Amino acid sequence: MRVIEAGQLTKYYGKARGIVDVSFHVDEGEIFGFIGPNGAGKSTTIRLFLSLIYPTSGSATIFGRDCVKHGPELRQEIGYLPSEVFYYERMKVIDLLRYSASFYRKDCTQRLHELAEWMELELNRRIEDLSYGNKKKVGIVQGLLHQPKLLFLDEPTAGLDPLMQRKFFQLIQEENQRGATVFFSSHILGEVQRMCNRVGIIKEGQIIEVADIRTLQQRNYKKVMLEAGGLDAAYFDIPGVTNLESHNGTLRFFYNGDVNALMHKIGTVTLSNVTIEEPTLEEIFMHYYE
Amino acid sequence: MRMNIFRQELTMHVRSVVSWSLALAAMLFVFISLFSSFAEQAELLNEAMASFPEALLTAFGMNGLDLSTVLGYYSFAFLFVQLCLAIQAASYGFSLVSVEEREWTADFLIAKPVGRAQILTSKLLATLCGMAITQAVVWASTFGLIEAFKGDRAYEATTLLLLLLSLAIFQLFFLAVGLVVSLLVKRIRSVTSYAMALGFGMYVLSVFGDMLGESALENVTPFRHFDPSDIVQNGAYNTPLVLISVAVIVVSLAASYVLYTRRNIPAVM
User: Is the ipTM of this complex over 0.95?
Assistant: First the structure.
């Protein structure tokens, strides 16, 4: 089942571009990564699905129903963690979380306390006294306490220390195993690589690629490192080679093409060391943004 | 209407409602407790007032006011009550939904499973509740203090009721106008300055209208629609003017619902 679907979704803020003709879908049970630099339109896309803003044209559906028409009903099953968290400053954490829970039809009390304990959140402090990281924890708990079927995470790890990030990812994975679909926006590729099955890459408001994370890594590029005395960089400047660097007798480059041609070329020189590996998502990503 | 939002809004208003109510009660006490000393020397006072330039008297709404009568004196104090209530209602109107955007809590609220219209209705009802409490305090202080300080002077109770009842529509006007303006602009930076501007602005308009005899100006300001000395002198409202207020309220509220349900909530940049 398609949990999220965007059809030529477009949003302009006056004349300023938000997103243009964005189409993609996310299936039930997926963890879908949404990658792009700041200002590419990641938050705009999420905010459209939550009806915080309305599309200029195109459609946004969740569970097969239109986000604008059925917004309130759909949001019963949606959890949202915004990139910047702000809550009513004068409230106590527990009151804010109870207020949050009061919007949902199910009883969230038990889950609320489980989550707060897991995230090591102090419930009796005032929001205004919390550090940014602790506010983020409040955000996580309020986004998950109703055990939603769909989670929108907008750059969720900013402000969390590494230990909390790990706990958070564990939590998201548990939610996913329970059956929740996750839409994970980020510009940190490492975490997307670790969490997601598929990714969409957005640049200047447009989707430039939606792909399985494995194919994205495997399909084209090999990252090659050669070590030998007196290697001539120009010798390896063959079609398919990019980012060729030579440093102290070490040659590094990316290769995209027939591997046999590359292996043949390598076979003609005497090497002291060689590695051929999958590039990280980060490296692929940089390629997209050139 | 959502009970949870209503309750939340009410809690957030408590402090402000209590301060406004106490301030108004204190102000009425100061005014009305001085009544007997004023009334005793009324002749002297009316004489002195007659020698003031007319523009000055008009500015304070004291033209044709007889300070020796209970209602004449009270309608003078009532002008200040109106001014306070105007500013209170305007600031509630300006901040009703803009506060969530200014403090970035709108994302939290709107991402919950609740429609925009329901949010607005719940917030409006909570605010009306707060304003009703303030008005109730004004009613109670007025009757209590007048009984305590009027001495042996009589007054027309129905006229006093008319004055006090007018406060409901009067405050709604400022609430509704504040709300619709807050939805027409991109962002309200300071609620207080907007509220003061609207409150005092309308007051000044009515004063200038009076002084210049400009009736076109009179039509826009509720200070004119519900002019206390007029109500006291005629023992009735000026119905056409009251209807202008009602029309402005209805249009502003309807426009607010349309604007709010279509509003794009700005994101933190």
Answer: no
